[in-house]
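Q: Could you predict the 3D structure of Methyltransferase?
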Amino acid sequence: MASARLGRSIKRAPLGFGTKVSLVFFLGLAFVVTWWTFSSPSASAVSSQRSSFDDIEALPATPAPRKGKEQSRKKAHQKKPPDSLPKNENSKRTAVGSKNDKKEKEKKKGGGGGEIEQVAAAKNETSKPEGQQDEEESEEKVDVEGLEEVTDSENATDEDMEEGVDANAEDDAGEDNLKNRSKKKKKLGPLFDPKARYTWKLCSGKTGHNYIPCVDMEGGHRHHERSCPRTPITCLVSLPKDYKPPEAWPERESKIWFKNLAHPKLSEAIKTQSWLNLSGDYLFIPSEESEFKGGAQHYVSSIEEMVPDIEWGKNIRVVLDIGCTGAGFGAVLLKKDVATLSLGLMSDQTDMAQLALERGIPAVVGNLRSRRLPFPSSVFDAIHCGECGIPWHSNGGRLLLEINRVLRPGGYFITSTKHGDIDAEEGMTALLSSVCWNILAHKADEVSETNIRIYQRPTSNDVYEIRATKEPPFCRENENQDAAWYTPVKACLHKVAAAIEQRGTDWPEEWPKRLETFPEWLADSEDKLTKDHEHWKAIIDKSYLAGLGIDWSNIRNVMDMKAINGGFAAALASQKVWVMNVVPVHAPNTLPIIFERGLLGIYHDWCEPFSTYPRSYDLLHADHLFSRLKNRCKQPIVIVVEMDRILRPGGWVIIRDKLEILNPLETILRSLHWDIRMTYGKDKEGLLCAQKTTWRP
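A: Sure. Here are the predicted structure tokens for Methyltransferase:
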């Protein structure tokens, strides 16, 4: 009883103010700890977030239906590819969001002379990707494997790309680069405005459906050097009347639907070329005929006879063909496993480079004047200039010095001329003596009626010690030989690499061994390159070739818009395609690695149009290209416009990127009436596969 009375007396005792405050504090602290424990993600969940999208297994033949809405877009859908050119069937599934009355219109003058109308934020029309609609809908279920976390090497590559390493910056710009990198680390807004609505308009001008923005001027004339319009190009290039997709390879090499590229100057040129036969609506190029009299096969065989050390497709794999008078030289070398890139000169009004691309032969538009070619130093095994009228000896021999820069030490320079110019030959002989090139052979071929000369670049610097004159002078030792984007040609001679760890000291292995065999200067990166090769081979085999619905028999011209080490192209080496590996100018300079492996590539800045004709490519591949451009392009929409220009109707795009990029990008492609064939997302990464249609505004 006494204890009970004592307990009641204790309960009735009032609490002091300090005691009450302490009690409230501890109760609040306990609540915060409990809430934090159950609401915050675990450490394992944080560590599983990836910054890369790995390979996808082939899609099953009979997908199982599934209902539900997933905010993270963890879904994939595939549609059967059409038997003919695709029609716009998916665009009508776009949902319209909120609208505002405010409109912001800009009328701009395009490089081709046409007005461009863009509604940047008119009506704020928003489209939701499929699988994120307000109503539940059925989806196709896809079994996906191989979505592992990125390896340390992949993370390292991404970090380099985020820093925006400028491959073509001069060595003395280090302080500016550090400032720029610090600025680029700032978190920016979305690349594409998800509320933006784009109104497309056709480009106008005399060039019409053959418009090359950085080459063509108003009035039908062309620039002497690459010169892009000041106003970003946001208009769409028209299609030729009665356009038809190219024939499947190898039929397209010799049979072309002429209306795809017909224009008056090419039509006139065809009348004077016996190797081009226009029959009805088709242009035929017989395999035994070419721009070389007697055929390109005889011409190539003559070169082999003159210099037996030249073994096409073995020790000679990567070749640059300057002039592209018809691509017959490159067509013959294709059959010998030689990757020949034809450089169509901007002054060629007949557009033979466009004819080469339509045939499925690698080509690009450029010029050899006052600027360096967009290639690294010491990468081409051989350089050819057929029926060449280029004055190599003029202007202090600058053009030949540029050839000396991009030609591999020990590489071959092959020229042929119709009629000998005594003054030009004397000037060329004096220039070659000053740069110490060896004259290996000279032949007046009676069948082709050309004078063929073959020279070789020195493999050692010792030969320079015996020069009779010190002109041209040597270039500075600390000069960046790979700086090639809008870089002027310098009247200086680059020495040959001497140390074994330097690029260019050893000749690569014979093809195809060189694709997976790395020289001494890449010894430190060999494991990383091997893993990269295996990584892309798995993606190509498990996903791209079988799982996306692409008919690869109709794919010939392929572009990797952000190539790193050429792994994507290397994995496609067994397919009947060729790949243009594009290394962005502000990315790590990996283009020499790509050439070393026996693949083709070029530098480019994707904030500008690419130097090629409309409808040049059958497939575009972009691996995290857009997410690396937040710090580069003022109007990223121009990249999508350029993809539309250089991709043919019926062509495909495969885009791997962050979901915050892919979601609005899908809406933009739908506004272009492209067919979205497949989308897939997991965590923050995803894949988008789409096919361009024949739609034009």
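Q: Anything worth pointing out?
A: DSSP finds 16 helices and 22 strands in the chain.
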